[in-house]
TrEMBL record:
<dbReference type="Pfam" id="PF01648">
    <property type="entry name" value="ACPS"/>
</dbReference>
<dbReference type="InterPro" id="IPR037143">
    <property type="entry name" value="4-PPantetheinyl_Trfase_dom_sf"/>
</dbReference>
<keyword id="KW-0275">Fatty acid biosynthesis</keyword>
<dbReference type="InterPro" id="IPR008278">
    <property type="entry name" value="4-PPantetheinyl_Trfase_dom"/>
</dbReference>
<feature type="domain" description="4'-phosphopantetheinyl transferase">
    <location>
        <begin position="4"/>
        <end position="112"/>
    </location>
</feature>
<comment type="function">
    <text>Transfers the 4'-phosphopantetheine moiety from coenzyme A to a Ser of acyl-carrier-protein.</text>
</comment>
<feature type="binding site">
    <location>
        <position position="8"/>
    </location>
    <ligand>
        <name>Mg(2+)</name>
    </ligand>
</feature>
<keyword id="KW-0276">Fatty acid metabolism</keyword>
<feature type="binding site">
    <location>
        <position position="59"/>
    </location>
    <ligand>
        <name>Mg(2+)</name>
    </ligand>
</feature>
<keyword id="KW-0808">Transferase</keyword>
<dbReference type="InterPro" id="IPR004568">
    <property type="entry name" value="Ppantetheine-prot_Trfase_dom"/>
</dbReference>
<protein>
    <recommendedName>
        <fullName>Holo-[acyl-carrier-protein] synthase</fullName>
        <ecNumber>2.7.8.7</ecNumber>
    </recommendedName>
</protein>
<keyword id="KW-0460">Magnesium</keyword>
<keyword id="KW-0963">Cytoplasm</keyword>
<keyword id="KW-0479">Metal-binding</keyword>
<keyword id="KW-0444">Lipid biosynthesis</keyword>
<keyword id="KW-0443">Lipid metabolism</keyword>
């Protein structure tokens, strides 16, 4: 049974400006493995897309929970990739939920949607 749905969208230019203003922003948003993947990216444009996508996914998760990000830290939410390259989400304290996440990018935006489903048994 679905227990929550959340979505978020962010302007890539806004994220790029935020990274320039605060170089520690990736440290605030990304979990350790996400940070490693971020640093492995080849250019600033791709890093901006990656960070914006993760940010949107984490905000979408908080909305699926029915509260803002204040009740959970960004770093407690980790978005990795499965063997096919699709995003997967793991959240400390929410192991009882089955999470579905989708992240997309355009030239100007990154967006994400999260569906939270109750695990059976």
């Amino acid at each position: 049974m679905i227990i929550g749905i959340g979505m978020d969208i962010i302007e890539l230019d806004r994220m790029a400006a935020a990274i320039k203003r605060n170089t520690r922003l990736p440290d605030r948003i990304l979990a350790d493995r996400e940070k490693e993947a971020f640093l492995d990216l080849s250019n600033d444009r791709r890093r901006t897309e990656y960070l914006a996508g993760r940010f949107a996914a984490k905000e979408a998760f908080a909305k699926a929970c029915g509260h803002g990000i204040g009740r959970i830290r960004f770093r407690d939410i980790e978005v990795t990739q499965n063997t096919n390259g699709a995003p997967e989400m793991c959240v400390r304290g929410y192991e009882q939920a089955h999470l579905f996440v989708s992240i997309t990018h355009s030239r100007e935006y990154a967006a994400a949607q999260v569906v939270m489903e109750e695990k059976n048994g």
